[in-house]
Amino acid sequence: MTTTDYAVAPGEYLEEWIEDQGLSQQQVADLLGSSRKQVNEIVNGRAPVTSDTAMRLERVVGIPAKTWLKYEALYRADLARIADEHNLASHVDEIAPSAASYLRSLGATEATKRTPGRFVSDFLAFHRCGTWEAYEDLHESASKGDFALAALKDSGAKLDRTVLTAWLRAAELDEAFERGRGFNYDPEELRAALPDLRARAAAPDATMLRDIAGKLADVGVVLMVVEPPKTFPLLGMTRWIDKRVPVIQQTGRWGKDGFVIWTLFHEIGHVLGDPRGEMHLEYSTEKKRNSDAEKAANEFARQTLFGSTGLSPFHGLTRDAEIVAAAKRIGVAPGVAVHQMHRRRMLDYKFGNRLCVDLAGTFDGH
User: Fold this and answer.
1) Which pLDDT score, from 0 to 100, does residue 45 have?
2) Residue 341: enclosing H or E segment and its boundaries?
């Protein structure tokens, strides 16, 4: 619905009628059985059109009483909205430019900083918050547990909260997230599904992520991709729906299969190893993944994918054929082995790249 930055008092319609009729305000007052002062204040928007006045106007002007009352209600609502937007405008600089452009790309607002109050109002509506203070409180409560944003402080990361919360909220509007509300998560069922998940991940192709998403859904875990704002420093996260259903939420910047599969099992490690309701952020910068929880998730991924021998079968290997053979014996995708060998400086980055499968764009989240 189109909104304006001005309010039209019902008295403006009355003034127009008076001019068309060639009457004076005193003459109209006499017809209405009221004072000239009352007519003047209605014309200037200082006095409201009451039910009694509306019925008199209907008889004198010919416009139905309910229409006059509708004009009055709209006028008062517009006044309140304009005053509210004026107050909200002071918060516009607290919203990051990338969050602003992100909301516009989602169709959540058409406003810009040229209409700051309207933009802040749309931002709050997107987050389902009635006031800026409510948004602040939501963010504060999130940082104390529900979303565990304390991870930001631990890592020293530069991630604007308005950008993060916009991405979080965008996920909540996705069909995959809504379906997840009906899931029944069972950690033992997830553990039991690990061999099947691992086997499917050993053969990466265009349908792998969708297949794995289906297998995770069967045990009550949501795997979804949500397009992020520009320059977003996260690759994904683990979060929870009402502390009941785990959500592995990714940005869609998947890249090669080695990273995709490793990150997926890393996130599953968070789901199984950390308290319900806790959120973990996966940064694009390696040095920011340094908490105890991150180390534990890495160890889980390593044990699940490579077993007790870890990467020892790959020591000293450089030829593609050798890496493929070793990966086949273990039952892991060669790209996963190359990914870990690169990270551990066991293999120069100029080797093994032809073994990696590009999975970008192979999962639409549905």
Assistant:
1) 92
2) helix 334-343
